[in-house]
Amino acid sequence: MRDTRESRLLLVLLIAIAFALITVDIRGGEDSPVDGARQAAATVFGPIEDGVSSAVDPVGNAVSAIRDSGERHDRIAQLEKENAALKAKLGSDDRNRSRLKQLDKMLKVAGQGQYGIKGAEVIAIGAAQGFSWTITIDAGANDGIERDMTVLNGDGLVGRVTTVGPSTATVLLASDPDFTVGTRMEGNDELGFAAGQGDGPLRVELLNGKAKVKKGDRLVTFGSQADKPFVPGVPVGVVSRVDPSAGDLTRTLYVTPYVSFTKLDIVGVVVQAPKKDPRDTVLPAKPKPTPTPTVTVTVTPSGQVGDGQFTQEEQ
Description:
The chain is an alpha+beta fold. The protein contains two helices and 14 strands; from the N terminus they run H-H-E-E-E-E-E-E-E-E-E-E-E-E-E-E. The strands form three sheets. Strands 1-2-5-4-3-12 form a six-stranded antiparallel β-barrel. Strands 6-7-8-11-10-9 form a six-stranded antiparallel beta barrel. A two-stranded antiparallel sheet has the order 13-14.
């Protein structure tokens, strides 16, 4: 269209009509007379707008991907950091798994003996209250711990409580030279008293000087009056040496304790004694004997000694 006077007048007229329609639409609000036309236009042009938007979206997504790539790299770095921390945690969890195993073993012992126990962690070891072989545990009066309570773990007798604070307690170990506990031998019920000897075996004096005892025999606690300081049936140790009987009133034994006193971590304080003596039920199962080789010599009919034949026989 050429730029003529008529065309300019037509343009001005169209602009005036557009402004008039806008004014009418604004004043009409929701009841605007042009609302129907606007909806019709949306019906016609809406799908076209959606198609254009779909065509443009991949480009927008690509731009977003470029914009977010830095965040993704940061997330990957964070994940790698978390994985490294997890590996480090798994490494340190070896100790936690060991402690869980100790706890399970101790609970099994408590169940077999029907001991009511309060679990505790060893937080210190060394001289305390004038004793040389002691540990400090993280349980005290607030946890129901009292003086002269038996302390055990999954292996056997650990010691007895000597001093109690609000949240901690001191335990005298069975290895201490000032420690003494009444014992009873498995099977023959011979009674005695075991005393600590530091890092050596326990020294046991049997009340019967003529008692028949041998290496490998096992002992448990005899128990005390009112179950303090010792409850009955707690495994003490295995006889490792027997002194020759010299006609004395007592007989001396040396007993290897079940508990390793230098490796204590999780222990249990017996806060409730069993209703009846568990006797020997808490002792671990005896190891099976190992077959030993023997030599059998056969003689041939001609009187010659044949080759030795080796057989496996249980002694």
